[in-house]
């Protein structure tokens, strides 16, 4: 499937250790000539860490996509009425955002984007990245796995000995996972 001209929302949440891989995949999507709009959660747009400065990530997103990121709930709200995206990807998706999404909470630009997009009966793809995936958040991941129009980039344990509850998505499978979700299918195998 060609992604040329597809309108793809990429919502970044505060899993900062994943950002290098995320930006690599954004470059690939841009090379496919997809129309990319990023959305930054409040954490993603404000927290600086050893993985980089928020303002640098915001600038890079703008440079790769050619569009200013959405940074507020009012900016993300028109995604619903305007039916702005063919697909929305939570890339990367923290445990915090997974837990809120599974429980109907809409208090960040990313969660507003997800709610607005899902009302249009279109696919939402999640890229799990959290240390509590097999702990406190397993129930929420289970709930989302069984929710209409929600798909996952294949994921697995990244460091079972040191972080036994941690799971992370295989970000390099973004494009095949997107293509499957756009056709209403979960890319398989989902566990890796
Ligand atoms: C350096 C750093 C790295 C983090 N990495 C992760 C992570 O990989 N996964 C995660 O779920 N939370 C991670 N967090 C915590 C989230 O940023 C925090 O829960 C935040 O409230 C998430 O908000 P959001 O989901 O709205 O982006 C990290 C925080 C910091 C400061």
Descriptive key words:
192 residues; 7 strands; globular
- From the alpha-carbon coordinates, what is the Rg to the nearest angstrom? 15 Å
CATH topology: Rossmann fold
Number of helices, where a helix is a run of at least 4 consecutive DSSP H or I residues: 8
Which molecules are bound in this entry?
flavin mononucleotide
Whole-number total of structural domains: 1
- CATH superfamily label: Flavin prenyltransferase-like
Produce the secondary structure layout.
Blueprint: E1 7-12, H1 19-31, E2 35-40, H2 42-46, H3 54-65, H4 73-76, E3 87-93, H5 95-102, H6 109-118, E4 124-130, H7 138-145, E5 150-152, E6 155-157, E7 167-169, H8 174-182
Parallel strand pairs: 1-2, 1-3, 3-4, 4-5
Antiparallel strand pairs: 4-7, 6-7
Helix pairs in contact: 1-3, 5-7
The structure holds flavin mononucleotide.
Residues 13-17, 41-44, 47, 49, 51, 94-97, 108, 129-130 line the site of flavin mononucleotide (FMN).
